[in-house]
Structures
1.
Amino acid sequence: MGHVEYSVSDGVAVLAFQLPPVNSLSHALRIELIAAIERAIADEAAAALVLIGANGTFCAGADIKEFSGSGMWREPHILDVMAVLDDSPKPVVAAVEGVALGGGLELAMACHYRVVHAGAKLGLPEVKLGIIPGAGGTQRLPRLLGVEGALNVMLSGEPLPATLFAKSPLIDRLVETDLRVAAVAFAAEVVAARRADASKPLPRARDRKVREPNLEALLQFARNSVRAAFKEYPAPLAIIDAVQAAARLPFDAGMAEERRLFEPLMASPVSKALRHIFFAERAAQRVDGLPSKTPVREVKSVAIIGGGTMGAGIAVNFLNAGIPTFMLEVAQEALDRGVGRVRDVYLGQVKKGRMDQAKAESRMALLKPTLAYADIGGADLVIEAVFEDMGVKEKVFRQLDATMKPGAILATNTSTLDVDRIAAFTQRPQDVVGLHFFSPANVMKLLEVVRGAKTAPEVLATAMALAKAIRKTAVVSGVCDGFIGNRMINQYFAQSLQMLDEGASPQEIDAAIEGFGFAMGPFRMSDLAGNDISYHIRQRQYAEGKLKARAVIADKLVEMGRNGQKSGAGWYDYRPGDRNAHPSPVVEKLVADERAAAGTATRRIPKEEIVDRLVYSLVNEGARILEERIAQRASDIDLVYLTGYGFPVWRGGPMQYADSVGLYEVARRIRKLASNPRDIPGFWTPAPLLARLAAEGGSFNGGAA
């Protein structure tokens, strides 16, 4: 049996199973586990069984790849494994180390006893995939932890330290020594005790009673909480319903209710979207043309050029990772402000109780402010975070080329500019890469890693490894104006401005797309980011002939000094101490005056049309980006929008959303939008890839290129 190693030690059968990397309960492993358990039950030399992961991990759960096909339901099902364990006449001990998550924890709970290493993590993360535990987790865990404890585990979905459960029936013995030796010794103790008293039945979680005197109040509180926090997600309420069944019904009836609740969730759009994200996060780490064994350069120190909001935020990421970080500015006053911005981040963390003062001071001690390029020459990585102007970038990179040691990585945080052109300012373009952080850089998870034409493989590999070290979600992009995220958002914002011309107000447009699920609409987002940022990008694009029409209203807004929240006025008005967006009479007059000057007839635009125009502008441009190989895969685009632009998570990203609608229908709606004579000429020409996939019945995430 290739996945299960069978041995007998001191009268105990040890079933050491493995299916790298995380021992997922695939169909192949389920077959071999049942065979090994039945062999041990029949083996006269074995009085008890120990189940242990052979590679330092117990089991991270079901094989998620099987969720979308028939593999999950192929017999023997995971429930068949549980049934064999339940029916074992010999005591079965789960020896848990590493992780026992999802189906792995359910497997452990189906054993009679659990010996757990103190460093292990336990959890039922199914809620993060839009489903509930489906192999008895909702029925056994309340019997072992109680209703409140079980709900906390399942609704959080987090892997939790085993030490939290040391005094509960979930763990029979917590050990810090060799797990295999400890589990065999525990099993031998159980055998000896049973020989002394054979009348006592084997303890099964299924036979325990759920005792909760305040059951109804607890369940109602839980329902109220999840309705407020997770209104778009059906799984949390289903978990509560399943736990209610565990408390009220016999075990088998509760299992039937768990199955009834589980099956529609598995087929739901929300679960499909969340499973898509699960795989997207893993796929993004695989970079085309980058062998898995590509060497990675050591990064022991980092330098940030610029102490503005972005530079300070970038610095915090590396300080949090324990990496000494230089901050370079051109003047002492600017440098002091930059250091102050970093300090303010840590003061805020201390004030909120997220960090103690000693840790904040230790991180600040890693920050090395300087006014001299000579001080940063020995850094392994330097990130430029200066004004978004090619002339300014050129000056910085020529200086870096002359200053930095051989082998140092030279990175630009540009959000739109040509990374290849920036690399050409140096004599070492192979060492240049784009690291586009999103603001606030110490909070936002997304990092666009921009691969230049001459970026060396080890530089790219180092950037990806470093992203993981600073806890960012890295997505590789090719070089183009705006890369993946901002190139698409330019089309999205162009449609927002077009609808403003046609009769919609900023608040109507924002409300419509926020109703769809975006964290904030285009006008509130622009105010938060700073309207002057997009203004300067547009001025460059006008000069380069990349924009056919001027965004007159948006330009005049900035020229009036309405840069957004930071200036107290933008598309909305803001009041001191109040970050809420208030409709602005000034903006209403500006828009009305410009419509009148242009002789524009207005109309009421339905919210459904607003949503279509905004979302499909993203999808259509995403298809072009995909076909041009700026993005490696459609799921990378989805990840960019989920982690950087507030696209609703339960919809899975713009490309996944388009797939769920159906590309034939998406193309049909785009052609309908193209019939609007008032819209930007040529804007709604379907991208060739979208048109082809729609005609073929294909999908972006089912093989887009």
Note: The radius of gyration is 29 Å.
2.
Amino acid sequence: MNGCRIGFDIGGTFTDIILFDQNEGIYHSTKTSSTPRDPSIGAVDGVAKILQQTSRQGLEVDYLSHGTTIATNAVLEGKLANCALVTTRGFKDVLEIGRQRRPQQYSFHAVKNRILVAREFRFEVTERVNYRGEVTTPLALEELCGIASSLKEKGVEAVAISFLFSFLNADHEQAAKAYFQANCPNLDVYLSSEVLPEYREYERTSTVVLNAAVAPIVSRYVGSLEAQFSEKLDIEVGMNLMKSSGGVMPSSQVQSRAVETVLSGPAAGAIAIAYFGGLAGYDKLIGFDIGGTSTDISVVVDQKPRITSEGSIGGYPFALPIVDISTIGAGGGSLAYLDVAGGLHVGPESAGADPGPVCYGSGGLVPTITDANLCLGRLNEHFFLGGEMPVDKVAAEKAIDQQIAKPMNKSLANACQGIFDVTLANMVRAIRVSSIEKGLDPREFSLVAFGGCGAVFTADVAEELGIKTVIVPQDAGLLSAKGLLVTDHKNDYSRTRISILGGTDKNALIGFFDEMKAQARAEFKKDNFDIGDLKFLYSLDLRYSGQAYEINVPIFGEVEEITFDTVRDRFNESHRRLYWWSDSKRELEIVNLRISVISLVPKATPELLPLQQADSGHAIKGNRPVFFKQYGEYCGTTVYDRRELRPGNHIPGPAIIESFDTTVVILPINTAKVDGYGNIIISVEG
């Protein structure tokens, strides 16, 4: 082992790269511009750049982890593989019927999302399994012959098979898969009983179809990227890809689990704040990740990100476990404009990496959040990307003045502050949705700023929400990439087995868990993991009898030690926190059994350094005018070089702390200090 591990995360504006040298115990970081037309170009260039900066060779890399938006972009842009659906006769329109919800409830002009599989690509076959898993109508294999011919004629790349009640009895799906593999050898076949063996046919069908639609695209991308790493950089180690659930998987699993990468990128950030925040002694955290195109909000309690199985992308549901992340269209590149009535709006449209903000000088004409922060003095025109990237402040001022300030009869500074305030209001509202509306009080949490633009806004956001502590980690602008190097390999397994809790046979329950554990061991062994070191986390989805939706309740310890009374108490506690009521006498129903199976990866634990003197004068790099609404004008503000700050240093506000990856804004009445891990801790007063 050479001890060289690389994580890279491709964002809308920049590609972030982190290299950890296990021998030296040091993190190295860099950024390159993303290349939206072909993301692999920016990725290869970025990895080449960090290898050059650290005088490393590609052959020295023994671990490579990637957060990708390929599946995300494919779904949102509608650039999906040509796929088909084969389902039980009478159910070909389940994707179209869905849950019978209007996309915009009160709009007469609402337009439904494009159906993932056009009707001409949906096929029915005679078969039926009942709600007990019993075959009532055998599978008509002869009907598959005509379907196979149609699939070939239509040039279908992948087919999803979703039969009714296949989560209880998958024999018909398996038989259909075997037929297509024998007669259409170039066709990728995916089964709902393998991708999501749970009830609710709409969500199950949507999930397996999403997998079929993105798998060929993600597989080609991963194969091409690994080939480029090998040919251009001599990196021979296989990639690991970040999953939406907060684990990584080897590239060998992409073909069968591609749908698990649809929310890949933001999940790594949540894992990072859970890990590094836990080291620093914080167990209640709200992650606040502002990149070039969006803001991602995550919640961590007891060093674990909140997980949900109610995900969707582009309006298409998928019921796999995912890190619960809320995303809004507010990033550094979000466009600021006036509507026909003269009202100011910011986002969700973004200038992205190409053409980017006006100040980039790459063809952007509409002012953005980045342009406004530059004009307010929060950003340094001479220190973008550590001074590597020249920007044009005059062009930004001109665009805001002409398009925002003059039409609103405001000064340039007030127009820029207006852009900032509109964005701030959107961000505060999104955090309230992620916390207060889910039974959590944000005042009990610390706010973690990361992403390139996170620390520019975080103190203002905390002040609005009554949050007292803001944490800006080391490498905050690249924290998602850093999270890729502390994320464990993880697979999730589930099975629907509905029963009344009090009447459930505990031994039968343990038997179902044992079957899932055996499946997990076989799959991890196939990918060359040491199955003796696997960690199993158990949980149950439960509901009050008669309810339509469930709450996930973890089982601590081994499943053999489970007691139904403990499960009931935990469910009622969760129900009370979420909905403000519970009924301890009401009957509970088990719906789904779940296991998360984890293979731990070596983690780089940063050294806890001793605290030094409070005086931070040695780190001052200059002074510049910054507009603060607390003063209503520009005021001289001390600027610090983060590289020169030491543990124990105190920084009074107002202040700006600069590093190549992010800028930290400390408001006039706030103070900050540096802890032993190099985190900047801002105490918020307001």
Note: The mean pLDDT is 90.
3.
Amino acid sequence: MNSYTLAKRRELGAYYTPPELSQALANWAIRSVEDSLLEPSFGGCGFLESCVTRLRQLGNDCPEQNLYGVDIDETAFEILAQKFQISDISNKFIFDDFINVKPDDFTQKNFDIVIGNPPYISMHNMTSKQRISCQDVLDKSIYNERTLGRNSSLWAFFLLHSLSFLNENGRVAWVLPSSLLHAYYASALINIHKKHFSKIKVIKINERFFKDAGADEASVIFVCEGFSSKEVTDGLYNVYSAENVNSLNIILNDRSVRISSKHDNFKLNLLPSEILLTYENISTQSNCLLLNEIISIKIGMVTGANEVFVISNERKNEYNLSDSYLRPVVSRFSDLVGVRHNVFRQNKLIGNNKRALLLHASEEQMSEKFTFLRKYLAKVSSEKRAKNRTFKKRHHWYQPDDGLYPHAFLSYMLHEGPRMVINQAKINCTNSIHRVYFKKKNSTKYKIAVCLSLLSCYSQLSAEIEGRSYGSGVLKIEPTAARNIKIILNDSCMEDLFNAEKSIEKFLNENNFKKACQTVDDIFIKNGIFTIDECNNLKKGLRFLRNDRYKGVKANVDEQ
């Protein structure tokens, strides 16, 4: 039964868990007829139903008596009344936001199990009351140690707060978004759990369970057992990947003793050991560098209204806009070809009617009345201007160009691997592209070599490890992740890469990304950076992780 509209569920951050998934977690978590359990955001009561089923299987004739819950929405209590015959819900089911609830608010203070699918609401979309409550959780939780951070999503505060509701040796079972695998606050949250549970399993499920609710991304199961309010020193932490609920059940029910996963980055834990060893060995070489050591990476220019400010030549002519209002801009990385972007290529984009012009008017131009410029900008009403956060940050809302022209452009959202293109046109780009600034005054040869080194299978694998996979399978590389991408560079390689620019450029212009990357790999093999066998291992790892981000979306990527 689903009594929530899609809009309401998004407002509450509520994504209903399929019954087969909630049942798998209930079966894992509940191990005794006496187990008491708390569902901190019970919503449609799916987890509560699964828990009742499990308790009955174990021989509990009155399983409803073991249930406790919290929810902030009245509809949840209507569903609760329809599905369960509970005579008195006072102090058992509380109408409030869980982060406001204290253990003493219930008829019993602690529980054997906390289970559920917490609300997925970012800090940006929280109410002011929720932000205050989250800060209160950070201030008062004995488990936080000031490590979680204020920018965490609401689900993270739910997990931290729930620790105060657990009995010794208790268990938690959560369905979480994929941000558990890559968000920096999530890493801190996992480390907190490592200190207080004897066994932890993080399981990425490739099946997309929440497509109908508009969340087209993989889900992550986070189960922990053996809770201790005191720190645990010898706990087990393991990372897995499951295709569906059937394989999830196998992982959940596997009680065999394993060595803890070594790495905080879940992708490193998923890579086959031979591939990981090759990657780690190459990473120890002196000619291996983090991008952060040689460049600064920032997001592109934020216009606040790309549909108004970033236009094509056709739109310019349609509104009779003078060239004096316009300046060249790169709005899509896919418009960039080869290794260098120059004035000729920019003019070709404009001639091909790409959105490659940026409207940026002067005060003097805006002071003139009854112009085509003012008529065009009147499309943005005063009400929209007042509400636009980006406009408020600028001295003049109609001047989007921040003047921070980069040395190079770096791709941001991609299906294959990252590319870097030298900005010889000396123009700006929108925030769909990253801006790159070399930290030192480097030669053109050096800059070209950096761009081309990024195409090696080693750097492409590094990008897969650092980047975040979106629901559609696309790889998103935020500036922080991009700074951690590794490249290989030495004098002999630099010379060979520079000399190979024309052939690599030809392959890139032909959209033969595979051949361009192979050319770079051949240069590294020739210079003894890695062997053919090591190169093949890196390519296997690259295919493995690319295929992993497309699981549940489409068939495997082509052979790399």
Note: The two ends are 46 Å apart (CA to CA).
